[in-house]
Write a structure and sequence with these properties.
48% helix
């Protein structure tokens, strides 16, 4: 076995190479360091850090049943989200996962799908030929409408400004928190902590009102997820504590809204940049059977749309990296790593690795279809672990199926009627914070399609 002793190995590069330059360049710096390498040790003072560049090792780590804990990114979010499913660990995470899993069954997701169709229909009716929009803002608004109706049983449009203000504060600060000594900013009075508290107050005001209003309604356990959270009972018949409901509701509000909006914005950008792929998609959108599939939220029938979403999330994964901390000494890929080692997985790098993907930087949605034209994730030919937009293992995103359904149905409904024109020389850039956002948005002119 190879023993990795990071702070004793002077030939090992310093972890500071990841921190040089803008935080937005972090995904590309991680990709450069892991290029052609399975595991890259870094020096970080007394802390052991490794970058994982091999898909098999990444999946191995994420699917280990024990001995692996959360990374710094999730710990940073805990300051804002409390002990929701995203940030909780150990027994609390297992218990909450068990209680919340029934809220994302295929039957429940189908019901959420009908909400997504309704919201997309309303947005299509509001759009007009030639209107100028920022598609990141537009998709954020669409995603918030869906989250409000499907998960909270209410209209969140009146809260959109408060949520946007909170995100505008949170997203630029997040990279600072996960840097060395970043958590120290949460312990003493300073402008960063004050700003985070302002963001938290904005979000708490929204979520606490939603919880109180939903609890007062006479239909606990209704079709919306918040009602189900309030109605759920554990094995001993006890309801979920109100603070836990708050934490889960806030987690679902932010995760369900932000990741979907970002994924859709990048998909619009790629379709505008690749007219051949857009025309290929429109063959499916113009098929007479597609209208019925969209109306039923039958996202499984929209093979080309699913392929476009998958390929966009390959190039621009909303969750661009994952961190895990080893709780005990253990082996990984022939290396003996000590307990306490921080393992970093760049999903962005795995998704663009030429060892796993042909023409990795090319937007090629056809790669996701088998010879009969049916969507199949295995058709891309990548090894297991090379495509991880929702993570893997016990902490895989609980809303992964809902997110795929929502992005597919919304994109199909809107792109069936409109296409977006983005300036040829426009580069959105990356904002690598909690999600991988287009830094400059996606400003576009919408054009009505002649079908």
């Amino acid at each position: 076995m190879v023993v990795v002793r990071l702070f004793r190995a002077p030939t090992v590069p310093s972890a500071r190479v990841l921190l040089r330059g803008s935080p937005d360049g972090l995904p590309d710096r991680m990709a450069a360091l892991t290029a052609g390498r399975d595991l890259v040790p870094l020096r970080a003072g007394p802390r052991d850090v490794v970058l994982i560049g091999d898909p098999g090792l990444a999946r191995d780590l994420l699917t280990r049943p024990s001995g692996v804990g959360k990374g710094r990114g999730i710990d940073a979010l805990k300051f804002l989200l409390g002990d929701g499913l995203l940030t909780a660990g150990g027994d609390l995470h297992r218990r909450q996962r068990r209680l919340i899993n029934p809220l994302f069954t295929p039957e429940k997701v189908a019901g959420y799908g009908m909400v997504a169709v309704s919201v997309a229909e309303a947005r299509a009716s509001a759009w007009t030929d030639g209107v100028r929009v920022d598609l990141l803002d537009e998709m954020g608004s669409v995603a918030l409408d869906i989250v409000g109706q499907a998960l909270f049983g209410t209209d969140l449009r009146g809260d959109a400004d408060r949520i946007a203000r909170a995100l505008d504060i949170l997203l630029p600060i997040f990279p600072t928190l996960i840097r060395p000594f970043g958590f120290a900013l949460l312990r003493v009075p300073n402008p960063v902590r004050s700003a985070l508290r302002r963001a938290g107050a904005e979000l708490d005001a929204v979520v606490e009102r939603l919880v109180e209003e939903r609890a007062a309604r006479p239909d606990p356990g209704g079709n919306d997820l918040l009602g189900a959270l309030l109605a759920v009972r554990d094995e001993e018949g006890r309801p979920m504590p109100r603070q836990q409901v708050r934490d889960e509701a806030l987690t679902l509000l932010l995760a369900g809204h932000e990741t979907t909006a970002v994924a859709l914005a990048w998909a619009w950008f790629e379709l505008s940049r690749n007219p051949e792929a857009r025309r290929w998609l429109e063959v499916e959108l113009d098929d007479p059977s597609t209208e019925s599939a969209i109306a039923r939220a039958d996202w499984h029938a929209l093979h080309r749309t699913r392929a476009v979403v998958a390929e966009s999330m390959r190039l621009h994964p909303p969750a661009h990296s994952i961190g895990r901390r080893l709780l005990v000494d253990q082996d990984l890929g022939g290396h003996r790593l000590r307990g306490g080692t921080l393992c970093l997985i760049s999903i962005y790098a795995l998704h663009r690795d030429p060892r796993s993907w042909s023409d990795p930087l090319t937007f090629a949605p056809r790669r996701w279809l088998d010879p009969t034209g049916v969507y199949d994730e295995r058709a891309a030919g990548a090894p297991r672990g090379a495509y991880l937009p929702f993570g893997a293992g016990a902490r895989i995103c609980i809303g992964a199926t809902m997110a795929q359904m929502e992005t597919t149905v919304v994109l199909a409904r809107l792109a069936r009627e409109f296409h977006a024109e983005v300036a040829e020389d426009f580069e959105p850039g990356n904002q690598a914070a909690v999600t991988l956002r287009p830094r400059r948005g996606v400003p576009a002119t919408l054009r009505t399609r002649a079908r």
